[in-house]
Amino acid sequence: MIRAVPILPVRELDAALERYRRLGFAVESYTGGERYGFVQQGPVELHVSESPGHDPLTTNAMVYLYVEDADAVHAAWSAAGVEGRLGAPRDTAWGLREFAYVDPDGTLHRVGSKLSG
């Protein structure tokens, strides 16, 4: 294996791509017939697939993003003012500083960095 790229369901592709753009990702729509998109920030890549019947209350999608500085990412995402639920960063018993963001499509993004020391 070389790498893995999660494919996340979204109800509306254009809104999802705009949300990821505001969170600092480079975004691109697939130019074929499907409503599909690509988001990337550094080595992190996610794909989003439009699924109009997607119900965020019954579908469980999650992704964990390891970052250099969870507090800096949290501050940037807070400033982006995107819809959804953004939790505060906290130190964990497993040695990470992390926070959670649940987007309007119901995807849980857990974001963490190693604690120093």
UniProtKB/TrEMBL annotation:
Work out whether the entry's keyword set contains Transcription regulation.
no
Identify the domain of life.
Bacteria
Keyword Amino-acid biosynthesis recorded: no
Keywords of the record: Antibiotic resistance
Q: Which SUPFAM superfamilies match?
A: Glyoxalase/Bleomycin resistance protein/Dihydroxybiphenyl dioxygenase (SSF54593)
Query: What family classification does the UniProt entry report for this protein?
Result: Belongs to the bleomycin resistance protein family.
List the protein's name: Bleomycin resistance protein
* Organism of this sequence: Paractinoplanes rishiriensis
